[in-house]
Amino acid sequence: MSSKNDILSAIRSHTGKRYNMPDLTLDAIVYEDKIAQFSDALQAAGGKAVLLQPGEDVNDIIRQHFPDAARIASNLPDITCATFNPDDLADPRELNNTDLAIVEGHFGVAENGAVWITRQVKHKALYFISNSLVMLIDREAIVNNMHEAYKRTEGMTYDFGAFISGPSKTADIEQALVFGAHGPVGVLVILK
């Protein structure tokens, strides 16, 4: 018998009355205007949200926000401003020097401006190596809080998933804030 089993057996033998887990009722925060809250939270995190208006082309919006981007990666069929498909690359190191990556998110979280993404590209490094990241989500796919977000992920099948909220940032002990240390310097979320 392993040490783990010995310990668990000892605990079980000394456990008296057992109780069922209580039903959890959670009064989590709910927002009247989830889109406005999502936009404000994302801005507070250093990112930006844009609500796509009827008749607007997502490619034009991307070009307006990133006019100097030369190397643009996306495997999404509607993204015509992309200069290459990242899935065509054999080695993820070839993604180095990518100015902009455009990906699809599943949903957003109003509470903190986060977007839930799963791997929809060959190399997940794309989400973190590009200088800037554009995430597209459906405006109706914004949940109020992280409790709702985790419930929404329960039925999904994926090999990689992450919540991304704003650009990458870190601060050292001297409180010097650095953007882009572990990922994109800029994040734009386009709400379709």
From TrEMBL:
Transmembrane segments: none annotated. Residues 93-191 form the LUD domain. It comes from the Bacteria. InterPro entries: FTHF_cligase-like_sf, LUD_dom, NagB/RpiA_transferase-like. This is LUD domain-containing protein. It comes from Parabacteroides acidifaciens.
